[in-house]
Amino acid sequence: MLERSDIQGLVTSAYSRLGHATYLFFEIEEGGESRARQWLGELASTVRTADERFREATVGVNVALTKSGLDHLGLPHDALRTFPREFRQGMHFVDRAVTLGDVGASEPAHWVFGGTKNRRLDVAVLLFASTQEELERLLRPYQNAGRLAERGLGLVHTLETRMLEGEKEHFGFRDGIAQPLVEGFPASHVSDDGFPADFVGERRIKAGEFVLGYDNEYGLRPHSPSLASDDDRRGLLHTLPESEGTRRDLGENGSFLVVRQLAQDVAGFWSYCRRVATSDRDARLVAEKMVGRTLDGLPLADPGAGLGPFGYAGDLRGHGCPVGAHVRRTNPREALPGGLEASLIVSRRHRILRRGRSYGPPLGETTRDDGVPRGLAFLCVNANLRRQFEFIQQAWAANPKFAELADEDDPIIGQRAFTRSVFTMPGEPVRRRVTELPTFVTVKGGGYFFLPGVRVLQFLASGDALARR
Amino acid sequence: MRHGALTIVAPITPERVEELRARLDEPGRALRAGMREANNPLASVPGIHFARWVVVPTRDGYGPLLAFESNFDGEEEAHLDDLAGLGDRLDAFYELCVGYPEIAERSAATRREYLRAHSLPYGAWHNGHPGLPVGVVRSDERLVEIIQRFLDTNDPRRLRSMTPFEIRDAIRAHVREQKADHPELVIDSVDRGLPSIWSFVLLVATLAALLLALLGWLVYLATPASLGAVGALLLAIVGVVGYVFFLEDREARTERRLFPIYERAHDDHMLEIVKEEDNQPQNPLSHVVDIKEGRGPVLGFVLWLIELLARNFYFRGALGSITSIHFGRWVLIDGGKRLLFFSNYDGSWESYLGDFVDRTSPWLTAVWSNTEGFPNTTLLFFYGAKDEGAFKRWTRSRQIPTQLWYSAYPGLSVFNVLNNAEIREGLFRDMTESQTKKWLARL
């Protein structure tokens, strides 16, 4: 049974009914640590959780911390070290660039926030509201630099999102259709993922893939960060069961949040499709083949399935949805070589909950750029950054050998780092291949955040663990 | 063509370890950076598919070792000659090892003798694409690229209007033209000399029949001595199986696993390893672990079994359900006290290890359940690699950095190598329409 009142709401919901959202990123200023803790304590009591009582609420506030954020709040070094390596190193760490394919224009050195050259990211405050007025009300306390300083905070970056008409993203595709259906999550909060019920028996994915403290797809509790029991002086936290009383659980009901600002070159995308196509209609076809869905969201592998569940069992050769298409790479379902059932098992172990929204004004299906920044404010939630988000990014999206391909990466989000930038569309009598794919998506910044359970958030704000520093 | 596998393990003069590591690191770094010929002695040895030099560091009373592996074309004798022929480039590494000939005594013969004296047999060796010489693998890569580029230059509408035969004929004509300009391009069928599955089935069936016949004959005789022999045989089997299970059970009760506060192996150790891996699309893994007390015979049997299957059954790209290993080997070192594992695999470490976990690999579990620290197994063959976190932690903690690693075709996956070969094999073969369609689908 999930302790929903302790889990931040973003884990179980994309807040699709809250159409307005802005993400704020702060640095905790030197000397401002204790004021920041006090602010965090106040904020913690207003955080929206997965609890039923928030179901009709018209606003949502969630808060997440980076490793340096935890450090500045005073978490002992011994406890910091129990966090997974990728989280401690951060998304911009030098080895991660190879893992994630953040090379060339997407290099962390070029990012506008996070990265290697910008101010530190400590805290992310994610604000959601059903109207613009309500969002502005939520934003007000953060708009005055003086008041921020009183809280020990410096504003580093603001990411204003926007929902595009027809639930589309900037390239013009219907987005956010398939999400994993998770055990114990409120059903109304998620759409169906599409695993055929008769295939895996149970269709829901274990909660431990997305929330720490519960069983995952391996039948095990995910690794959880912890604190020496002595450092939890007032006993605010629960004991980590495996530790036999020596450690307190910092991960309980928490999760890891990936933030990536992905700029989309809409004009470049449609120019390329026109250039390689034989007609305007063909340009759309090429675009849809690259994505793996029609502009309206129908899966090419099985358009008859509509926006509902579908699989690749009937399209293993990729004549409908190409093997290297974006949606097939990022969630291969039955399509991995080695058997349908084995593939489903593997796929279930590398899922993320996508919580992204667009930013910037829509441009439409045009080949002329207006120079205005736009793209996807990509957010995703998972229990294991390495095995989930990074795996999808590295072993599937950027992998030139994905599913027996020869030398190509994800046509949409790929950075062409290790490949010769082609895209193959299998078919009869022979495949069609487009070449010299440019990059359509550029990473502009982001970071790895910990999305603590509310109890842990309150503990972090209490400063109780400071004694050891 | 036959492939060979050579392993050479030499003790390093303890105070020279850092120096040796530095000498290996330099060409190793150049190779990782894509400078394939710079300073790299391996590129000049003919017929090498994959090879590496690794410093096995001092640990738990074992001295430092320089371990070398090569997967090569042809016979071991000729390969040893080629290695000895590296001369002072070989000396640069081995003169820091114990017992290497003094400068005055160095010759092709003494170098060769040193290498041979330190060579070790493998316990089991997996070959993902046996019988394909390096030159053919490389030529196939080019051939397929030529065909792909040819198709790219054709208007997709035109291709769609052609029949499979017409497309194939156009490809054939283009390849013939290219062959005229590039005579070194291999376009003919290559005899890989693969074993027939039937010979393996026949072998197993014969052995089983002989055993049954023996038992039947003993029962038929029905003398006290013959029945006693049947009983002894059955008892021996029960005894061996029972012994293994007893070991498992005793370990499960006596071994208390350390509770992992930290998710992964030590940071510094990790950083050194990860800086060398996750280069797409191929990577090396080097791994050394202590064999559990008393488990030598069980491990020996499991390796023998895997070797038997690898030679006769798993020669089409997959080792069990793992399809990402070009070449992999287990070698007993330090007088059978430790187990060395080298693999040359496709993709990232995380996906490679994930395959072990997700695609349930009883063979790998059966090997490593005989080694220290491996996550608890059930009945020797099962479960160990299922505890995802524990398995990955264990692998990392025993993994060692690979200093100098060479691949003759760094851009190809196991599947690519085999698929490219199939494309060449089919190019000028007579095929029906449906075979032609399948062949075109390989492109």
Textual characterization of the structure:
- The complex is a heterodimer of chains A (469) and B (443).
- Chain A has helices at residues 9-12, 33-44, 67-73, 77-80, 85-89, 94-100, 132-139, 145-150, 197-200, 266-276, 280-291, 326-330, 340-348, 389-397, 454-462; strands at residues 20-28, 59-65, 113-114, 123-129, 153-160, 226-228, 247-249, 255-264, 353-354, 357-359, 375-382, 423-425, 432-434, 441-451.
- Chain A has 469 residues and is of the alpha+beta class.
- In chain A, the strands form four sheets. In chain A, strands 3, 8, 9, 10, 11 and 14 form a six-stranded mixed β-sheet that branches. A four-stranded antiparallel β-sheet of chain A has the order 2-4-1-5.
- In chain A, strand 12 and strand 13 (432-434) form a beta hairpin.
- In chain A, helix 2 runs antiparallel to helix 15 (454-462) and helix 10 (266-276) packs across helix 11 (280-291).
- The two termini of chain A are 36 Å apart.
- Residues 188-202 of chain A have low confidence and may be disordered.
- Chain B is globular.
- In chain B, strands 4-1-3-2-9 form a five-stranded antiparallel β-sheet. In chain B, strands 5-7-8-6 form a four-stranded antiparallel β-sheet.
- Chain B has 443 residues and is an alpha+beta fold.
- The interface between A and B is large, with 50 and 52 residues.
